Input
Amino acid sequence: MILVTGGAGFIGANFVLDWLSVSDEPVVNLDALTYAGNLENLASLKGDPRHIFVQGDICDRELVDRLFAEHQPRAIVHFAAESHVDRSIHGPGDFVRTNVTGTFTLLEAARGHWMSLDEAGKAAFRFHHVSTDEVYGSLGPNDPAFSETKTYEPNSPYSASKAASDHLVRAWHHTYGLPVTTSNCSNNYGPYHFPEKLIPLMIANALAGKPLPVYGDGQQIRDWLYVTDHCSAIRAVLAQGTPGEVYNVGGWNEKPNIEIVHTLCALLDELKPDPAGSYTRLITYVTDRPGHDRRYAIDARKIERELGWRPAETFETGIRKTVQWYLANQEWVAHILSGAYRDWVETNYAAR
Output
């Protein structure tokens, strides 16, 4: 049995689905079902006894203690987080509560559970913390990619809260001996991605004939990682990772945002052409967000060298699968595009 936090969100749900596709080991899935958590992501698991869903808050110590006592998980995979930079600028308090206080609560509950185990159980237990490349700050055009020893320089409330959670995880290993691992990933994309992020936002807006808002000059560079590749990397770290170690997970796909938008337009022109003309006509440059990091790049050689992991998807194969998934799952998209989502889009983009 493993315990997954945030397993109804984008990456968490993909991990739960991926885990149960390759393993019969059950999953206890703890998710608060905030705006980005969606049980529709897990509809294919309805009635599956291997998936035990619990709606709850990772800051609720009593609940987390009860789950450890009841299910005795051998590992915890911690996805639960507030994760959108723009939202962190508008409301940083939620990010500090979930990402910092929530991680602290989980670490203390895990430590209590771990200390109750026999020596074999202690040696086998793992706390895996899923983090982001944004904790490392921003790179110049010719700077080397982020390695696991890169100094932390978070620039947004989101990345600062994730950096704080990373430091807590590290400290609980070095102070208490809790067997932890951490992975810092690059930008994920793929099925079930909430449409506030670049790729699903562009797909949803294009299909609706709405403007495709591109921040600043669109030359912000990110490394892109297909979500199922990320899931396989986490499985590799759980199975073979060394306690106390950090593993950077990337897709070896550095691309500027404007190139991503043009790629999406070309795929949509091919797969669902618009009689009004190419979707590129909808590209609209808007005022950049405050403190926007210019470039992220992941050096993923350590996880390949030590654990034998490499991404299976190229960007070309992964982005085509992503567009095809959104075209085939328009009902899912329609349910996501609720009044609350429209209100957020208005808040974030109206003044730009």
Q: What stands out?
A: The chain has 13 helices and twelve strands. The two ends are 47 Å apart (CA to CA). The mean pLDDT is 93. The first strand starts at residue 2 and ends at 5.
